[in-house]
Amino acid sequence: MQQSEIDPILLGKSLRFALDLVAAHRIAKGLTLDLERTTAIRETMEERVIVALTEVDLEAMPSNWSWHKAAETISIEIALQIIREQKHEPLDQDYLRQ
Hints:
Blueprint: H1 8-29, H2 35-54, H3 67-85, H4 93-96
């Protein structure tokens, strides 16, 4: 699959649930969730999903295959990996004061 075949709007919609998972984990663990951090997480997830999708041979996929559904599934796996990577991140000091 070519990157030009991936609609950025549809890609963003496909990543919403996975981004919510990462955000919920960050909040539950007392990690920062500012705009800069959220943007970095989204960009990382988008990049990783795009790399995965560009490895797909569309001719080998069944006729009912959807890159949107594939992106959702891949993004959830990426979200879980991002969550594992956050294990050693320091807690948000403002969160600890509450």
